[in-house]
Amino acid sequence: MKYNLAFIGFGTVGQGLANLLWEKRGFLRERYGFEYEVVVISDPLKGSVYNPEGLDLGKLLSLVKETGKVAGYPEGKKGWDSLKSIRESNADIVIEVTYTDIQTGEPAISHIRAALKGKKHVVTTNKGPIALAYRELSELARENGVLLRFEGTVLSGTPSLNLGLEALAGAEIREVRGILNGTTNYILTEMSKGISYEAALKEAQRLGYAEAKPDADVEGWDAVAKIVILANALMGGDVKVADVERKGITGLDISDIEEAREEGKRWKLIARAWGEGDKVKAKVWPEKIGPEDFLANVGGVTNALIVDTDVLGELTMIGPGAGGREAGFALLSDILSIHRLLAG
Ligand SMILES: NC(=O)c1ccc[n+]([C@@H]2O[C@H](COP(=O)([O-])OP(=O)(O)OC[C@H]3O[C@@H](n4cnc5c(N)ncnc54)[C@H](OP(=O)(O)O)[C@@H]3O)[C@@H](O)[C@H]2O)c1
């Protein structure tokens, strides 16, 4: 089966997926019977290009590498903004990879709404729309007979959501608990070596793990968005971002870390969602945990998630929680999951 793909946003993750699609095109065709054309790419600064017959992805990737833009592509229609690209192109799968805004979810919520209303499947790594509008968007997908997939919003390319939704179907998930933010885990790991918060943050910024304005990570907002997604998508909750008790890591200093070390413990920013009566609750809080707790041994930018089920007890996923190629892989696995469902 052949699919027409639309890229809305063409930054780190968009290009990560595009490179994987390009490198693996033969393998995807032979192993899964999956074929594709990229018909449109729309991005404010890199430009946009649309050709209903398909763009030469190899040529486009070279162009972006050399010039930082897609606008110089020799053929096709230019200048289509994201909503026009979603509504008027002949794409059947929209890849939403614009920036995350955890306050409003925009512009991604509008992109996803437009795609679903236009009966186009959507894959995204954008936490904003799924944390803020999961129920509305999944209902819209159902009403329009299309699929919405968002594996890469939690743990990036390391399986979490689809594993829970598909492989664990039939098991009741009683609790999820994990380290969902690599930046804060890196900072806390560095601090446990005796480095100050400020120096650890600076190093995280130098290595590209933390943004210049690091609040979304260090104040716990990123982990809040992820635990809300897990609570609602995996546990059937109706948790809002504002319901989550939240504390980041900025209140911890080197003396707290030293004290924990003397007790044989480590500070970790733990995100947790659990069932309480008929409700699901969630919390993101720094916790001092001992070596008997698996999460105490997860260091650096690595993420980990422990899922407690009624049938199997605890299962643990551990792996990279960020990176263009890793998050691009989550999108690829979502696209293939859509293909499996459609191809039968
Ligand atoms: N990077 C990771 O490791 C990772 C992992 C998991 C999830 N995610 C999530 O995946 C998404 C993409 O991340 P990223 O790292 O690729 O970010 P990025 O490099 O900043 O790319 C985002 C792209 O979206 C473009 N954009 C902004 N507004 C747009 C609009 N209205 N229409 C179309 N394109 C628009 C930006 O364009 P300009 O630059 O031209 O303004 C930029 O090229 C984010 O939501 C992020 O939270 C990222």
The CATH C-level class name of the largest domain: Alpha Beta
Q: Identify low-pLDDT runs.
A: none
Order of helices and strands: EHHEEHEHEHEHEHEHHHHEHEEEEH
Range of helix content: 40-55%
Could you say what the CATH architecture of the largest domain is? Answer: 3-Layer(aba) Sandwich
Number of helices: 13
Average residue pLDDT: 96
Identify the bound ligands.
Answer: NADP nicotinamide-adenine-dinucleotide phosphate
Q: Can you offer a commentary on this structure?
A:
- The structure is a single chain.
- The protein has 344 residues and is of the alpha/beta class.
- It folds into 2 domains: 176 residues, Rossmann fold (3-Layer(aba) Sandwich), CATH 3.40.50.720; 156 residues, Dihydrodipicolinate Reductase, domain 2 (2-Layer Sandwich).
- Helix content is 40%, strand content 23%.
- The chain is built from 13 helices and 13 strands.
- It has a 7-stranded mixed beta sheet with strand order 4-3-2-1-5-6-7, with helices on both faces. The protein has a 6-stranded mixed beta sheet with strand order 9-11-10-8-12-13.
- A hairpin with a 3-residue loop joins strand 12 and strand 13.
- Helix 5 runs parallel beside helix 6.
- The longest helix has 20 residues.
- It is globular and about 65 Å long.
- The site of NADP nicotinamide-adenine-dinucleotide phosphate has 27 residues, from helix 1, strand 2 and helix 13.
Question: What secondary-structure arrangement, pairings included, does this model have?
Answer:
Blueprint: E1 2-8, H1 12-23, H2 25-32, E2 35-43, E3 47-50, H3 57-67, E4 77-78, H4 82-88, E5 93-96, H5 108-117, E6 121-124, H6 127-144, E7 148-149, H7 161-167, E8 173-179, H8 182-191, H9 197-206, H10 215-218, H11 221-233, E9 245-246, H12 254-262, E10 266-276, E11 279-289, E12 302-309, E13 313-320, H13 324-343
Helix pairs in contact: 1-13, 4-5, 5-6, 6-11, 8-9
The structure holds NADP nicotinamide-adenine-dinucleotide phosphate.
The site of NADP nicotinamide-adenine-dinucleotide phosphate has 27 residues, from helix 1, strand 2 and helix 13.
